[in-house]
Amino acid sequence: MTQATDIRRVPTHLRTALSLAAAGVPPLPLRTGKVPFGNCRTCAKNTCGGRPIMKSPGPCHCPAPCHAWAAATTDPDVLNSRPWATAWRQAAGVGYHPGGAGLTVVDLDNADAIAWARDTLPATRIVPTTRGEHWLYQGAMQSANAVRPGVDIKSTMAYARWLGPGTGTMTALPDVVRALAMKEPIAVRPAAITVPAQPVSGECRHRTPAYLDRGIAMAEQRITEASSAVHATVYRTFLAVLSTHGRCGCLTDAHMARLFTAAQIKGESARHCTDAWTNALTTLGL
After folding, report:
1. 210: helix, coil or strand?
2. What is the mean pLDDT of residues 224-247?
3. Which among 204, 185, 186, 205 is positioned nearest to 256, based on CA atoms?
4. Segment 198-212 mean pLDDT
5. Of 215, 233, 214, which Cα lies nearest the Cα of 224?
6. What is the per-residue pLDDT across 108-118, written as a single tens digit (0 to 9) for each?
7. Cα 101 to Cα 22: distance, rounded to the nearest angstrom
8. Are 96 and 160 in contact (CB under 8 A)?
9. Which one-letter DSSP state was computed for residue 125?
10. Sign of the dihedral through C-alpha 215, 273, 141, 237
């Protein structure tokens, strides 16, 4: 059997996947309807605990292509493995994990969304889709659906269909795209951030402006510098701030707004910020 014959016998979608993997883009097989394959028997009904999904973002270590975007990999041995063979033979298309390649896809689903993007977003690489266009930017962020009519963002913990390399020069992910994930205004809900003051003897040391400002600045920096696991970083940072400053009544809405703003710039929603803050309060018994 010749090498050329071997290549021809490789399923078309697998050839595409191997090409993407060689370029550093993690692919995965898609079924009819542009959906991933179901979980393997070990992970059926999430009996494995869903750990690959809960981590942000990380590969699935199951032998079969499980957990949607978490199955995407650049390892050719995995892509060629026997557990994946059936999926590739049955695949109707190829997907990829944009965040795993350090990319963000702005999915424009109709003509109005495309017109908005042309008026609002920096030019970048464009891939035509069935109903619209994918605009690809260099840089990863939190994924979000329906950020405006006909517009989704696909990056970390998400997958997109591979429809070809597209045309144009890919540019850096701009702040205007990151801001699209902020569905709610940057604001702090007073009921969620009220911290009951505790009786103290003498002057509270946290009321020294430099001490408190330095602590808030360090917390902002920790959130800003998070390169992965942003959800967990935001929660742990809120927990650290509250454990130090939460029992003396020093924290104000302005301080919390600074932390919420830093988190939302990283792609967190105001809803998640509020939930993380509330959970931190509960954990500390405040």
Report:
1. helix
2. 81
3. 186
4. 56
5. 233
6. 999 999 999 99
7. 11
8. yes
9. E
10. positive
